[in-house]
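Final paragraph of the annual report: two paired records, presented back to back.
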Amino acid sequence: MKTLLLFLLTAVAEIVGCYLPYLWLRKDGSAWLLLPAAAALAAFVWLLSLHPTASGRVYAAYGGVYVAVALLWLWRVDAVAPTRWDLLGAALCLAGMAVIMFSPRAA
């Protein structure tokens, strides 16, 4: 549960860190949005470093959670409902994350 929560926080930090510059560049937002964006991206990197397993495995598994959180963002922030295919894809990504992170490994 701790791993999944950490991945969720990491995904939100990354999406916020990328969404704020998007608002500045594409939606005529203030350049001041770049400051919290930089802080969010720094938090993203820090959160990824908190996992005790090999970094490549963490990055691969995190990608699955990122896909699911991005679709949730699409729905809640962009007000675009995900399709059943989006949801199926997110479920497959989360299943992949679970296999990568929670499968038994030799010590």
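The closing record of the year follows.
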Amino acid sequence: MSRMRGFTLVELVMVIALAGVVAVMVGVLFARPMEGFVAQSRRAELVDLGAGALNRMARDVRLAVPNSLRVSADGQALELLLIHSAARYRPNRNDSDGLRFDSAPANTCGSVTDGGRCDSVQVLDPHLDPAGARWLVMYNIGAESGGNPVAGANVWAGGNPGVITPTGTTISRLASPPAGETHLALGNLPTGGFRFAFASPQRRLYLAERVVGYRCQNGQLLRYSYTDILPALPSEPPTGSNPQPLAGSVSACNFAYQPGTTQRGGLLTLTLGIEQDGERLGLLQQVHVDNAP
């Protein structure tokens, strides 16, 4: 007669207990490396988030109209006038290296532009397309008095004569320009026309499209844009500026700007701190600002 063989209950309990001990030992052995891996992944995600936000800011700063960067007194916000395009111009009057515009009939204002138009300027770029541009800017020196922009010498204060065309002025491309050039006409000019305060030694002209701002607010780094020229940096993103978060969980934020001189470029220092799931990250980036107008 054959006998049946198997595990006794005591043997089964001993196997389960030993397996539990082995599992605990394996868990203890691998827990610390796994925790380190998770923490490293979390820190890498924070670095990517913060660095991406700072790089976006640096890219906009490098595309700013010279001397248009401004930073709030508390270091929590900055704004700039974003370049649409740039070109070198021909003077449009026979008595000046600068630019003047008015609505007088052609050939009545000493104009040297094609067709003698009084409201136009020729630039040395046959492919310049002004679509989307709202202002012309020339030789913005960014002058201030007591921390306030000076009218006629700073884009944020306007002025006529000035360094930026009035808001609402239209810029269009005329047909059949001279070879190798683009012929631009300005419309909706103020009564009496508009004159740039300074001629550019390099005959450099900028087209600007919008104001771009960054602000740290309520634990977020926001990017916004709008199409008005405000004399002072607003205390919060203006209505209709569509603020979008670039980074969340912001625990520290500061922007510091040294405008520089005519011999030395400006320097913008960006500091951003992010805290998430017990991890803290601090990033610092410096951006050299070319303010040669």
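Residues 9-62 form the longest helix (54 residues). This concludes the annual technical report; the extension proposal builds directly on these records.
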